[in-house]
Every structure is written in structure tokens, then in C-alpha cells.
Amino acid sequence: MKARQIHEAAGQRTFAVIMDAGDEVMAALEEFARTEKLSAAQVSAIGAFSRATLAFWERSTREYRKIPVEEQTEVLSLLGDIALTEDGQPKIHLHAVLGRADASTLGGHLMDGVAEPTLEVIVTESPAHLRRVFDPDKGLALIRP
To answer: pTM of the predicted model, to two decimals?
Structure first.
């Protein structure tokens, strides 16, 4: 992974984060967020994965149903945010639309993904803090501005 700040103005920083082949995206972004001390940011990316795990939130069980993707896919859209947990650690929350070789798509919550050959990520820091707070009714930690 390579990262460089490409813009700063009015309390907002923008970074280009380029994943190399073999980089595990969620771990690399968490490391990046800790290094840059990000407390609130938006994430967007395109590129490709050699494999990934998507998930679907099952409201009835309050658990994610994992969807393994054991094939090369194009990352058509990867969007999400970085916020701090209640204990001050960065939490990466991403949703992905992945394109298969036959032009069909898969989508869902990104649990993990391995870049291949690259993933081009833009991270835009917000000057406002976003915090995740556990909502017992939903069974999830949700952003509370």
C-alpha cells in the first residue's frame, strides 16, 4: 500500500491510497486510518480483487451472512466511511459492487478483499467527528452525528 495526501483545505484532507496486489483492503485501511489519526472520513474506490467476502445483514438473527467470492472481480464501486468506535479505534464500513467476467454483479457489505492487481482508494477526511454507538434495538453500532 502506498498513500499520499493530495489536498488540504478548511480542516479537510484528501488522500490517495493505492493498494498493491495481495494487500488485504480492510486491514490496510485500518492501519492507514490509525496512522493518519482519522476520526471521520468518506471512502470511495475502484480496482479489482482476487477474492473477497461480502455479507448481508440478517435483521432477524442480527448477524452478517457471509458471501464468499472466490474469483477475480472488478471493483465497480466501493463506498463507505471511517468513524471511531466508542473506544476510539477506527472502524471501516464499506459496501461493494463487484463485477464478474460475464458482466453480472454481486454486492454487499465488504468483510474482506484482496487487491489484484490494484485498488485505487480516495479517502476524504471530514472536519466533523463521526462516532459509532451501539444500538441495542438494531444490534449494530451506528453513526450518531
So the answer is: 0.91
